[in-house]
Design brief:
The structure holds two protein chains of two kinds.
Chain A (H helix, E strand, L loop, with lengths): L1 H17 L4 H14 L5 H6 L7 H18 L3 H12 L4 H18 L2 H19 L4 H15 L7 H10 L3 H27 L7 H8 L10 H24 L3 H16 L3 H6 L3 H20 L1 H13 L7 H17 L2 H20 L14 H14 L8 H12 L6 H29 L3
Helix pairs in contact in A: 1-2, 1-15, 2-15, 4-9, 4-13, 4-15, 5-6, 5-7, 6-7, 6-8, 7-8, 7-20, 8-20, 8-21, 9-18, 9-19, 10-21, 12-13, 15-18, 16-18, 17-18, 17-19, 17-21, 18-19, 19-21
Chain B lengths: L2 H4 L5 E3 L5 H8 L6 E5 L5 E6 H7 L16 H12 L4 H4 L13 H11 L3 E5 L5 E6 H11 L5
Parallel strand pairs in B: 1-2
Antiparallel strand pairs in B: 2-3, 4-5
Classes of the chains: A mainly alpha, B alpha+beta.
Chain lengths: 442, 151
Amino acid sequence: MFWTATTIFVVAYAAIVSEKINKTKVALFGAAITLVLKILDQREAFHDIDLGVDWNVVFLLISMMIIVNILTRTGIFQYLAVRAAKLAKGEPFRIMVILALVTAVCSAFLDNVTTVLLIAPVTLVVAGELKIDPVPVLITEVLASNIGGTATLIGDPPNIMIASRAGLNFMDFIANLAPVVVIILAVWLLIWKFIFGRRYQVADELKALIMAMNPNELITDPKLLWKAGAVLSLTIVGFIVHGALGFEPATVALTGAALLLVLSGLDVHKILSEIEWPSIFFFIGLFIIIGGTIKAGLISWLSQEMISLTHPTPDDTFSLSMVMIWFSALASGIIDNIPFVATMNPLLVETAHTLFSSPDGTNALQHAAMLPIWWSLALGACLGGNGTSIGASANVIVVGIAGSAGHHISFKKFLAYGLPVTFLSGVISTLYVWIRYYVLGL
Amino acid sequence: MAVSQIMNRNIVRVTPDAALEKLLLLQAKPTTRQLYVTDPDGRLLGIITGFDLLQRLIPGYMDANLVKLIVNDDEFLADTYKTNKTITAQEFMTEEFTSLRPDASALDADVLVVQCRFNAIPVLDESGRLQGEVSRKDILAYICRLAKIGF
């Protein structure tokens, strides 16, 4: 069984990385073989908490997709982007910074792809009016999107998966990841000021064109905006208090999505047909393949190898944290961070049980020495996506949008922006984890 | 009746290296339905419709909401033309197309037009050489003849 499960896992991973076959097809086919060969039985795949599909992740993703889908129909993203450009008084570098911040904040609470998908086109229009090169602004936005998405539990799928597996709540993420995200954004944009601060010179009459834009026109459905805005706010409040009230994040999101479906009066067929079902089924297939490798013992073997390599002890997990940040960042730059985190999660669960299991029944996954490792994984996996133009879905989307407007962003060009920013994020994350958890012990 | 008897032989052929300027001029004529890209032997390589050209002149990111922000519409369109000026027919022709043989029936053509919402279907011989096209209007004219409706 060990070798069969390992073969399925390795072949599926290779097929996903090669991008020769659609990744959802690969994941579902791998899952089907895992079931047919009885590596996992159906009950384990569908109902076992440790081995099977993580429905918390699946329903949280579907629910947030429903909320975002309805929100995009209101024109609010375009409104915010134009407001940002006007707030910057048409000054290109200021526009770059404010759009980056708007993107980062939206991405922290909503899906990164949707955020850039709606803000990038406005950027192209604004850059077109100002007659400036939109490429640096677009790349800045997508980098900000991946950084902002790191800050919260719902900001990026890796965080949703880590939260569900480790039992961490929304406020845990805010308290541990938001501070370092703010530091990274601040340092990065300060460096950007030296690079781009004086690069753009724009005549006053062109700036006046931006000031003449009326963002209010972009709100397509004010009534729907009120409803969607209210439900999104309530959902975010729900996330903030879910830990205290004893609800899982998926319960909060599902309630928000259901409420908005009822209140919006929109056709449910239309909304649901626009959900990214291929991504959802990719998750489902992946969970089953990985469940097979857990049951077959591959994950516990890898965990033993990782422990013998980094020598973590209940008192010192520093080297494991560091490996987690840099290895995750490197891996996420090259492959999709979702299968990566889906594999690392059970690996860390196994490691936590080996290192921190105690007879008094305390939760090994949330042991004080284990927490920095989870945060390191989240930081590495989310921020590593900035490394290359294929490191995160949002990057691929922005490169596509730029291309459709005649601005080709080559792999090398993206690398020139993304790699230094990823390296900077990694260094800041390393310092943050080291100082906060290992020096100050907070 | 066979499509060879109702098809329109007066069609517009272009070479794969035809530039956007030429394609626009040809497609803008009221009588042109679609442009047929053929090789030197007359084999059909691809089709370009008016929709393909219009789509090319609107950047992929633009939508009905965002267009409200464009101050100077004419300048915007002229700019997109300039951006795309160098593209040639082979770069954006549709290479997957449905065709009919000259001996197919008029009913075959009618059903295909309705089912796939085609404007016109190319008619090709056994070696893929373009013979003509059957358009919606050709089929309607044929039905008029069948029903003995005249002007």
